[in-house]
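Researcher: We're reviewing a set of sequences before deciding which ones to prioritize for further study. For each one, I'd like a predicted 3D structure that I can look through quickly. This is BIG2 domain-containing protein. If possible, include the structure in token form so it fits the rest of the review sheet.
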Amino acid sequence: MRLSIVGFWCCWVVLLAGGMSYADEPLTLVPGEVSFVNDVIPLLTKHQCNAGGCHGKLAGQNGFRLSLRGYAPELDFETIAREARGRRLHLAAPEQSLLLRKALGQTPHGGGERIPANSPAERLLLDWIRQGTPGPRDEEPRLVRLEITPDQATLPPGESLSLKVTAEYDNGQRRNATWLTQFHSNDSGALEVDVDGKVTALRRGQTVVSAAFGGQVAVAVFTTPLDEPVDPSLFLPRHNLVDEHVFARLAELRIPPSPTCDEATFVRRAYLDAIGLPPTPEEVQAFLADDDPNKRALLVDQLLRRPEFVDYWAHWLGDLFQNRTERDHDVRGVKGVRAMHQWLREQVASGRNWRDLSIDLLTASGSCVEQPQVGYYIVTVGEKSIEDSDVADSVAQAFLGTRIGCARCHNHPLEKYTQDDYYHFVGFFSRIALDRHKPEEGATVLGYGTKQTVNWRKQLASQQEKLATLQAENGDAAAIEQAENAIARVEKQLADQLTAELKIRQPRTGEQLSPQPLDRSQLEIAPGDDPREALAAWITSPDNEQFRGAIVNRLWKHFLGVGLVEPVDDLRATNPPSNVPLWNALNQELAAADFDLRRIMRLIMNSRTYQLSSQTNALNVRDAKFYSHFYPRRLPAEVLLDALSQATGTPEKFEGYPLGVRAVQIPDPGAESYFLSLFGRSERTTACACERENAVTLPQLLHLQNSDNLLQKMRSPGGRFPQLLQDQPSDAAVIQQLFLATVARPPTPAEQAEIERLLASGERSEALLDLFWALLNSKEFAFNH
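Model: Here's the predicted structure for BIG2 domain-containing protein, in token form for your review sheet.
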């Protein structure tokens, strides 16, 4: 068996430290004493008794319900030991306990046999029942960390090794938890792992094996390279740090990269990715004619300064920050959406760094007219209570790239986040007080407080107005005194509420929880301070890798087609980056650049990695995550529509907008457009990147091939095609211009000759129109490649 040096020594660690059988080790954390929380719950989880497809689903199974993966052990204990008069346990004859007999398959059970007879699992359950079924105890050791060895190794196809999982508790205890751990491979076609933690490499790639135990997770990364040697010169030259790390990984895997793309491919790719528009024929010709060896880098700099760059990236941020009208009882209207869109444009145009922009948005307050960024909270909070709203989920996903929504109802199945963690995080938004008004009645205002304080402020304003009227009219002294007393009472209520300790109720336990970040660190929040300010400081700290990684990963996916972490907004320990050194380098680069996103864009676009051809070779054709070639992808809905409009020279008409406004300039995703809806624009209802759908579907293909709108654009009297026929008497010139306007390259000599041959046998205008239609319906036009 061949292993890397790291893998070699790690395997010896496994053999030396974990060579004894489970029978030789204590089955429980405390020898001879079974803990319901630390032993029984992990056992039930390991054998999937409390999984979502069994007793862990919301309705339970056949009258027996457990909390999903054991997130509520106190409830599980009541169900197992107390429910139905304790019928599931037989303390006098533990072997006859229904819980045990069903698990062993000795009594009819819908789930069949879950635990083998005479196994460590059977012995542990029997010991627990024999000890009187002790329940959860407050003083029990708490699991704080999980360790997996080896945590990385190079493993040739066909070779195997065994993993060992060690659990560490807050009292310093450590135990071998391998037999109670659940294992999962993120690519079972490349590397499989069995229930005991034995991994076997099947084919080339990089595979992550996750180990889950007691609500904690740990991961091990395995690399399986090709057997064939690769010419080292193929991994040169390297333009910058991106290439250093990408080509180092490709060399390790022995995956040869594709060659660098040609100039025409690069200019189109760069335009589409940077400004959301293809280059014009004139721009393509100028770039191809330029003999400056540094012209690609110069083009990147030019594109990052273009006004279209501002349009495109303001639209991109609008997706991320869910800038839309509300579906019911909207209080901003399209005017408010446009105002926030303009605010985003100003941030992009001024080069506002990502950290400062994020702080402004996270701490937004005041009138949504004067402070348009307040719209973010109007959409994510809406009319719901803070506990029921989507604001915590949206903030975590947009700014930290993590999905915490599962923990609203139960502990996260793939992360360390518990239900308590979720509501601790929600606590940061517990002082958001939205005073909502219909647009025609005034601006909605976000203030500090709660819904109750909004009502008290209204009462206070009413009482103050009443007092002013009484005083102006020299009213009755008793009435004035009564009004002053009423004002004093409301002011006291307000003061008490605003300086009260910040707490939010955990719905399952009823416990009142204080605001706490997802890393469980403690933040100082003075009475009366807006907790969002402390949250914003924690999120945007230069030391917060998730904040940096979330935006870096989104940018990387935008330019390279596949995120270093996929899904792009699902950062977690069990979903590590495909290239950790590159991930770390880009994170450090962002911090060093003072969170200037253009710096990262420039770095990526100038890399050889970004400039590789999308044409594959025999050895990299299956690569989908190591960037050995450029990954083609369909143009986003708005970009595709704008490209069609530019290619035909006929702008799209949007209701309520002047002719000539491009799709990426439309602030509101609710603007009517069958094309944009069909091609998957984001509705911005959540922060999830999955809202934008870039898959190719049959209805899309049929629409392009049969669309009257497209034919009208092609034939429009003021459009490109009629103008070309009028200005260019030469068929060759028309053909070249049509190619440049659609696929941003001249036709090849073979294409030119074949097209001219076909033209000779048909009517010129219709034959050229057919060519134009074919180009607009080509994959080369619809994809960035």
